[in-house]
Design a protein that fits this description.
473 residues, globular, four-stranded antiparallel β-sheet, eight-stranded antiparallel β-sheet, AlkB-like_sf, 13 helices, disordered N terminus
Length: 473
């Protein structure tokens, strides 16, 4: 079993056409069939990335990586635009499925099935039928390196993937659910995406969205968002013993940006980064703001999450577990098929140049119950390590329809992140399909986007938070 390197050498490496062919197969050099310009040394995008790399590294210290943790080194490796990262050490379970061969080849980027040790585990209802009555065989895998991590490749059908995309954009990224844009803009009441759809379908001019800083509504008690690079916050882990004090922590909203200008919906849509699910999450304190109540989690997302948790054979996952780290009540995985109830989460909207820094989820009172993550759109490299950034992470390639479950004490509090969204990997079933004009705006948006739906359970079974679940509109 191999792990990602602890350090990344800063030396410049030029990738020739022959090297690209070796790394990604002959399909990657097939002229017009080349899906990712960054992998074609003759493309303008590749040459531009090379120029930018030369410019940015000209005066770089040779020992720049001396202080990097193994997790940071892995982030840097896969985030690099030039030279394009070698995915030979990235686990790619889609390569085991002949039914995904076309998707893999069309997307060019490939990992390796021998990059990491894994084992197949039991999965109930492994055979399902799609809308065309075709049989789909689903599998589940565990990684011994990360106890509690379960990967379900292609768990979500093509039809349900499209349904989830519509739900995320139409129903979830709108009032009363908060998004990253609400702090800075007065968004359309029925949602930014729905306003954009009207522009597309009716051929009318874009609605102009006004900045919040210029409105009377913004004159409330707020805190200023820190300037400069994003600050790392090491928040106190939530637990039954810390719940009361964390709940009482003031959670003031951020001040709207004073430099935001009026902007069209078409230009604002690509700036959407997240939408809240269930209990409201306060990004400034990295704690839940229970005073705002709880919104419903959409039926389609809830159904996928519960189906995944209910079908995994958890006895296979935790065979040989010593019970360490589960808390006073001991391991609770035996009850998950009955007790798991998703009640909070985030929908992330990544553009191809976006990343998610390595972090730990410490906000849930229940630190062991399953966190279910659904990948939609373009593929991405997912890193997951240990309880500190000093543990070398394992890299996994996640494609549209894949589901990841993080569970148990070793996995739920492990550092994880997304250093790279892999451009030009949108599968055929999410592209524009002839005759389906309604899907065209979604396909256009998804061409440069990855959507991740991650849902978790905040409270452990039997814990009474003493809250009114009624959402505040």
């Amino acid at each position: 079993m191999r792990a990602g390197p602890a350090r990344v050498a800063p030396a410049l490496t030029y990738i020739t056409r022959a090297a690209v062919c070796r790394l990604f197969g002959p399909f990657a050099i097939a002229g017009a069939a080349m899906s990712s310009p960054l992998l074609d040394p003759t493309s303008p995008a590749y040459k531009k990335a090379r120029r930018q790399h030369l410019k940015s590294t000209r005066n770089r210290s040779k020992d720049i990586d001396e202080g990097w943790t193994p997790f940071r080194a892995a982030e840097k490796k896969y985030k690099a635009r030039f030279p394009p990262p070698d995915l030979a050490d990235v686990l790619d379970l889609a390569l085991l499925d002949d039914g995904r061969a076309e998707e893999v080849e069309a997307g060019v980027w490939k990992g390796n099935t021998s990059a990491l040790e894994f084992r197949e585990i039991g999965l109930g209802d492994s055979e399902t039928h799609d809308s065309s009555d075709r049989v789909r065989k689903r599998k589940a895998f565990a990684l011994p390196r990360i106890p509690g991590l379960v990967i379900l490749p292609s768990f979500v059908s093509h039809e349900t993937q499209r349904e989830l995309v519509r739900w995320a954009l139409v129903d979830q990224a709108r009032h009363p659910n908060e998004t990253n844009l609400d702090t800075h803009y007065i968004l359309p009441q029925d949602g930014l995406w729905n306003s954009y759809l009207r522009t597309c379908s009716q051929g009318i001019d874009d609605e102009i969205v006004q900045p919040r800083a210029s409105s009377v509504e913004s004159q409330t008690c707020t805190i200023s968002e820190p300037s400069g690079p994003r600050q790392l916050i090491s928040n106190t882990p939530a637990s039954p013993s810390t719940y009361s004090s964390l709940s009482d922590t003031p959670k003031l909203p951020y001040s709207p940006s004073p430099t935001a200008s009026p902007i069209s919906t078409s230009d604002l849509v690509p700036k959407l980064r997240w939408a809240n699910l269930g209990w409201f999450y306060h990004w400034g304190t990295k704690q839940y703001d229970f005073s705002k109540g709880q919104q419903e989690i959409g039926d389609v997302a809830r159904a996928v999450c519960k189906e995944a948790v209910h079908n995994v054979n958890w006895a296979d996952v935790y065979s040989g577990d010593d019970g360490e780290g589960w808390g006073d009540g001991g391991p609770d995985w035996e009850t998950w098929t009955e007790s798991y109830e998703p009640d909070a989460g985030i929908v992330n909207f990544y553009q191809t140049k976006d990343t998610l820094m390595g972090h730990v989820d410490r906000s849930e009172v229940c630190a062991t119950s399953p966190l279910v993550s659904i990948s939609l759109g373009n593929a991405a490299v997912f890193l997951i390590g240990g309880l500190t950034r000093d543990a070398p992470p394992v890299p996994i390639l996640l494609r549209s329809g894949d589901v990841v479950i993080m569970s148990g004490p070793a996995c739920r509090r492990a550092y994880h992140g997304i250093p790279r969204v892999l451009e030009s990997t949108l599968p055929k079933h999410l592209r524009a399909i002839g005759g389906d004009e309604d899907w065209a705006p979604y396909a256009k948006y998804l061409s440069t986007t990855r959507i991740n739906v991650n849902v978790r359970q905040v409270f452990p079974k039997g814990f009474d938070p003493g809250l009114d679940n009624t959402a505040v509109a």
